[in-house]
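SAMPLE LOG
Freezer: B-3
Tube label: C17
Construct: single chain, 211 aa
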Amino acid sequence: MKKGNVFVSLLKLFGVCILGWLIWVFIFSAFTPDELEIVPDSFVRLSVILGLATGFVIAIGLDYNSATRKRNQLKASASNILIVEERGLSLLEKANRVVEKYSSHEKDVFADTNGRHVKPVKDAGHFQHLIESYPELKSNTNILELLDQIKSCENNIMNVKLTYNSNVQSYNTLINSLPLSLFKRFFKFSEAEYYQKMTAATELTDEMLGL
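STRUCTURE (predicted):
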């Protein structure tokens, strides 16, 4: 855990303990007999001890609720990744069906120099390259709309993955901060892993750029 995070955690814990101490001072003051002009030393010492304990419990409770909420956000983010990826696969499947339809009629257009058919559509860049190779596809507004949807979906996939990683960082930082870090095993909080399989940017070839 970074030094800055440790300092912030200790500062927050100190503030909560001060608040707890003030609460107990108020309680003891309210129950101190009127004939006593000052609060007995035993009450003062007890208020400090109880204040520290109260502040510690409050801090743990607040962090526990926050960590639970962040863990639920992680689950939701992971679910969103699957939903958007399924949407992307569905759109790519449609794109492949379009390619298969037109390649059956125009094999020369959709075949490489070795006479083999092009590989299945894997992303928006690949599909756009195929569209540019065939005027009838290029002029079809529905095909262009499909291309736009694939591009939009790829952007959404990247965004939900970045959101997930941001949530992972926030959650891991919290459970490794005091005082929750002392009890994270007891509460069964474990560090979440970052999403590593990020969609790579499409390499733009000379043909795609019209060079």
